Amino acid sequence: MLCFGPALAQQTSLPTATLNAGIHVIQAEVAGNAATRSQGLMRRKAMAQGAGMLFLFDESAAHCMWMKNTLIPLSVAFIDERGQIVNIADMQPLDETSHCASRPARYALEMNQGWFRKRGIGPGSHVDGIPPMKRRQ
After folding, report:
1. Domain ranges (residues) in the chain
2. Is the domain covering 14-128 a CATH 3.40.640.10 domain?
3. Between the CA atoms of 39, 42, 48 and 50, what dihedral angle is there, to the nearest 10 degrees?
4. What's residue 7's pLDDT?
C-alpha cells in the first residue's frame, strides 16, 4: 500500500501510478476522466515532494492547463503518446492564464513548481510507467 502522508490527505480516492523520469520516482494520482481532470489539484494546500497528478486525455492535442482555485505553485509537463516531454510550464496559484502544450500531447503531469528543473528534466526527457488508456464502451 502506498502512503503519501498528510500532504495528500485531502485527496479524493483517485487511482495512483508509479512513474519514472530517469532515476526519479513519481507517485502520481491519475485524473483519467473529464470530472477528475476538471477538479485536478484544486483547493489543495500542499503536495509531497515526489508526488504529482497525471492527466490522461482522450486524444493528442494542444491541451492547456490553468490554476483556477489551485493554491500551490505547480510545474506542468506536457507529454506525448511515446512518453516524451514536449514542454514544461510553471504556473502560479490562482492564475487563470492558460499554459498549453507546444505540440500535440496526450498527457500532462503536474508537480510542485521547480521539480523538473531541479532534477534536470526537460523537453525530450522520457516519462515511463504511464498507465494505458482504457477503451470507452
Report:
1. 14-128
2. no
3. 50
4. 40
Strands 64-65 and 85-91: unpaired
**How far apart, in whole angstroms, are the C-alpha atoms of residue 49 and residue 15?**
18
Q: Among 68, 74, 77, which Cα is nearest to 107's?
A: 77
Q: Are the C-beta atoms of 78 and 85 separated by less than 8 Å? A: yes
Largest CA distance in the chain: 41
Task: Read off the C-alpha cell for 8.
Answer: 495528500
pLDDT in tens, 30-75: 999 999 999 999 999 999 999 999 999 999 999 999 999 999 999 9
Torsion over CA: 15, 65, 96, 110 (sign): positive
Cell of 108: 500532462
- At 65-118, the pLDDT tens digits run 999 999 999 999 999 999 999 999 999 999 999 999 999 999 999 999 999 999
C-alpha cell at 87: 514542454
Joined grid coordinates for residue 47: 503536495
Question: How big, in percent rounded to 5, are the helix, strand and coil portions of the chain?
Answer: 10, 40, 50
